[in-house]
Structure formats: structure tokens, C-alpha cells
Amino acid sequence: MSATSGFVELYKMRMREFLREPAVLFWVFGFPILLAVGLGIAFREKPIDLVTVGVLRGEGAEVLTTALRAQPGFRVEEVDAEESLRRLRLGKVALVVVPGAELEYRYDATNPEGVLARSRVDDALQRAAGRTDPRTFRETLVTEPGSRYVDFLVPGLLGMNILSGAMYGIGFALVDMRSRRLLKRLAATPMRRSHFLLATMASRMTVVIVEVALMLGFGKVFFGMEFHGGVPAATALSLLAAASFSGMGLLVATRTRKIEVVSGLINLAMLPMFVVSGVFFSSERFPDAIQPIVRAMPLTALNDALRAVLLEGADLTSQLGRIAILLAWGGISFVIALRLFRWN
Amino acid sequence: MKSAIRVRELRKTYPGRTPVEAVRGLDLDVAAGACFGLLGPNGAGKTTTIEILEGLLEPTSGDVEVLGLRWDRDANTLRERIGVTLQETKFTDKLSVLETLELFRSFFPRGTAARDAIDLVGLGEKAASHVVTLSGGQRQRLAVACALVGAPDLLFLDEPTTGLDPQSRRQLWDVVRDLRTQGRTVLLTTHYMDEAEKLCDHIAIVDHGRVIAAGSPDALIRSLGGDHVVEFAFAGGVAGESELATLRALPSVRSARSEGDGYHLTVAEPHVALPAILDRSRALGSSLTRLSTRHASLEDVFVALTGRHLRDE
Lengths: 344, 313
Ligand SMILES: Nc1ncnc2c1ncn2[C@@H]1O[C@H](COP(=O)(O)OP(=O)(O)O)[C@@H](O)[C@H]1O
Ligand SMILES: [Mg+2]
Known about the structure:
Chain A is mainly alpha-helical. Chain A has 13 helices and four strands. In chain A, strands 2-1-3-4 form a four-stranded mixed β-sheet. The longest helix of chain A is centred in the middle third of the chain and has 31 residues. Chain B is built from eleven helices and 13 strands. In chain B, a hairpin with a 5-residue loop joins strand 1 and strand 2. The radius of gyration of chain B is 23 Å and the shape is elongated. The structure holds adenosine-5'-diphosphate (ADP) and magnesium ion (MG). The site of adenosine-5'-diphosphate has 11 residues of chain B, from strand 2 and helix 1. The site of magnesium ion (MG) has 4 residues of chain B, from helix 1.
């Protein structure tokens, strides 16, 4: 046998194991696409945002209702005083107008929809009452591909998938092999241990290339996404991240003997990042005080870098900071994991 | 004869809140070309010992030489020259028998072709089947095949037939006998005395981490002083220790102990001892409620040495 045949056979073993397991194939390839379809449809752009407004029954209500209905963008309901508060609380109406000599707007100022309704209702009613605007203007509406929710979502899902794929594909798989005593059995052969590690990583990287092609291809065909020539950069970032996350997967698998325990460890490591690292919504939403931590997370670095190269056409040299974060997490994990790793 | 394994004063203590002294001063000499058995009950320290010999566990102290080499200096050479089956390994379900063997073959610079190893253990018809479809006995033979692909000078088999049905056990015994005729050295552990007796040229009986007796199966059985065992009980409640001295003094009886409601004797010549036992029964005004004679086994050797049965625990 030649010097590299061990590597080749180990690689073949991991790929066969992967390809022959339908459940794994679904979680790796099918699930993220289903998620993208579901969320993409749920958060698709609506043509005009309708604002639902309540007008309190009473004298003068009729005039207000007519005025609002004459304008586009409103759904108007007449409501009783007590009912109005309940509907406001439930968000069935964004704002209630109380007719009178002086108009009263009731709304929740902390609710963006209420604030929007306040400004649009006031505008409509003032104009209907004869206000003229001193400045003329025209509107140019822009919907740029790249600013929709799916555009934000697809790179985030790709990042999430690369992380969970590496944690399960390496961490879980190694503990499974340890619990089956296969690791110990392999350690009793002259197998080069570096081959084992490299083959495990290489099979993971192969899968990642397919994942990238599938997610981005799907985004392009199904959602008409544009990638500004960023696909090669995104592929390179994905491979780098897969290598880095492999280190983290190896780290959770160093000593663990039970697959239940390693599943717990993997979730413990991943779930906080799924929340803070900008998979489903921007990580900018977290307070400034914790931003340094959020940005230091490897998944944040990957997601932000993927969005930069895919949505803004940034080149890799502009992403060196994020690349450094990925390298640091991977490097430190590998150094610790290789020291602590147990074959039995 | 050349020595394949030489162990002196081997000790292994598993650390922990209550440390376990699994091996406590074990000596072993295995000659090249022999099929050597470590026979002992569960927990005797067989797996611990064999895994130290396989380089998978560090001994706490003691001296271990395998094929004239040492694990701290010659680990790589040793791994190329030994074949191992662990007490239990679950190979990957979704790989075929042939794929599994090609994987193991790829680690060894020299060895037996994967197909030939499959034929050696009689799994030829199953070569293309996934591991998940194999029976327990077939999986165990796959494990042996994986240990053979490197054409090892020394083969370790840890409890090769534990949990198998009688037919699978006999198939595996045939495989091991074939290996022995090819002149390979085999070290196997077992808690089945029939397995040790049928397969091994030489046996070390292990208990509580020590070798308590060693030799060929015949020699061990002869050490009882008689090849035959006579078991019987007197009617009418005559039992217990008081009668033992009388029984021991009967002609051709080598040893006696009470067991259950009756007695267990080792005997050199049953045709001399049996009439004497019947005479004694008459003298007591009693009769025999049961009587059996059989060839002595390693089980009897173990009981004579420890007062316990091999499979008690
Ligand atoms: N990893 C371990 N940690 C602690 N104790 C162990 C470990 N492995 C085995 N033992 C203990 O060491 C003793 C010998 O075990 P083992 O070598 O497996 O015996 P055998 O193979 O003869 O059944 C037993 O008491 C067992 O419980
Ligand atoms: Mg054992």
C-alpha cells in the first residue's frame, strides 16, 4: 500500500457513510433550502403597507372615515370607545382617531407601526382639511435586489449550515466512533493519525462545496439573487470556516464518550451563535455593550463576510479582520483538541 | 522456542475515587507459534492485560516485551506486526464487508489482500453486504478478518465468541484452528473453559489480576491429581464437612469437597473409587440419590484453585 492509501480509504469511508445516510443528507442539504423557501415566502415584500386605523364612533367620525378612505394605504374601521383600547392592545389597529374640534391620536409610540400610522394619518387628515404643502416633490421607488430579507437570509443560512455541519460531521461523528470503539480499533493499526484527521476534514470540505453551490444556486434561481461576482470569495470563506469549525468540532469530541453528551455540547456551542451571529436578523440589533463579543463570534465573522462578498461585491482583502477571527478560533481549537484527544 | 510475549510483574491500577487494581503483578510467557489462552472470570483483568499488550493502555508498572520489541520505543513497528480484535467493536453499518477490509488493509505496508482475508474467515458470500446486515457471528469473523489483513505475526483475540450462538462459536473456532495450523501466534482471552480447552496449547488461568495457574490443558487437569470427577449425594441428609476425611481416604480419591447437598471428588480410577463409595453408603445405612462421573475440566481446576465457578459472576 502506498503512503497515502490510508488517507484515501479513510476519506472514502467518511463520504460513503455520509452519502448512504438519507437522514443526514436531508439535514445537510434539504433542510436549509426548505427554511429559505419558508422564510423567504413569509417575509416577502408586500406591495403597499396597509395601515389599519380605528375611528371612534361619534360626531364627526363620518367625515374622518371618508377622508381616510379616499387616500391609498389605509384600512379604516369604526370602533367603540372600550373596544378601541382592546383592538389597539392586540395590534388589530395601529392607531385610533378620536373625532372632535381637536383631533386625538391614540397609539403606542414604542411600536413602529403606530408611529408610521400617526404620521400618515395626520398627513392625510391635514391635507383633506385643506393643508397645502409649500414644497413640491416627486418619488422614485427603488427595490434593489440585495436589500430584501431573502438576500439577508441566504448567506446567514449558509453560515449556520457550515457551522452545524462541521460540529455534527466532526464532533458527533468522532464521539460516535469512539462509543463504537472503532477509534480504539483504528488506533491499534499503523494508521497515520494525521491521515485520519485530514480525511475527516477533507470529506467535510467536499460537502461544504456542494452546500455552497446548492444554497447559492437555489437563491439565484428561486429568488433571483445577484451575487456581484462574489461566489468564488464566498466559496473560499466557506472552506476556511469549515476548517475552522472542524477544530471546534474536534474540541467537543476530545474526551466525550457518549453521543448524548456531545449533542448537548454541540448545541451549547451553537445555539447562542444562531441567536447573536446574524443568521435570521442582523446582529447589529444587540446593544453596543455586547457588540465586541458578538463580533468576535466565528459565526458572526463568517456571516458578515459572506454578506459583504455576496451582497456588496466586497473582495476578500477587505475581510481580513473577519478571516483572522475565523483562523484564530480554528487554530486555538485545534491546538487544544490535539493535545487532549483520546482514542479510547 | 522463541518468545512472542514476555510479561513480568505487570500492574495496572485505574485511577479514580476508588482506584481499581485490575492487574496485580501478572507474569506471562507466550512462545512463538502457540495458541495461548488467558482464561478467567469476568473482571479478572484479561481485557486490561491484553490491551496493554496491544499498546492501547499504559501499564502502571511492570515489564512488557512483545515480539522482542517494546511499546515505548517501537510502537510503529509493533502495530504493523500485530492484529487485534477488541472485546467489542462496532464497525460502520453502511460500509460493506469488502470496503471495511480495504480500509483496514490500507493502513498496512504489507499484508493479505482484502478478498483473501474475507475468504480466510469464510465471509466470501457476504463480501458485498453492508455490515448492518451481518449476524453477530459474522461480525465477529469480520473483526478477525480485519485483524488478519496486515498478515500479523501475533494475533490478539479478546473474548472472540462471547455472546455468540453455538454454531457461530464452532465456526469461529474453526477459523482460529486454521490460523494455528498456519503457525501464527495467537493470544486469546475467554471465560469459556471449553473454548480454552479446545483451542489453546497453553493456558494461563487469571483471577483478580494474577495468573493463578499455567500450563497445557492436560497438565492443568492432571494437577488435580485425577482425570475424573465423581459427584454424588447420600440419601437421608448425610452431608457436610465431617464426612470429607473419610471420603478422601477412599482408594484412588485425590481430593474431596462438599458441594450443595452432596460431594465432589476427583478420582484417578473411577472403577476403583466407585465400589468404595457404594460400600461407604451401605456402611452409613444410606443410599445414593444421585451419582455421575465425567472427565475433569478446566472448570474443576478453577474451582479447586479458587472455590468459585468461572461463570459465577
Ligand atoms: N476504564 C476502566 N476504569 C476503571 N475500571 C476499569 C476500567 N476498565 C476495567 N476496569 C475494571 O478492572 C477490572 C478488570 O477488568 P477487565 O480487564 O475488563 O476484566 P476482564 O476482561 O477479565 O473481564 C474490573 O473490575 C473492571 O471493572
Ligand atoms: Mg474482558
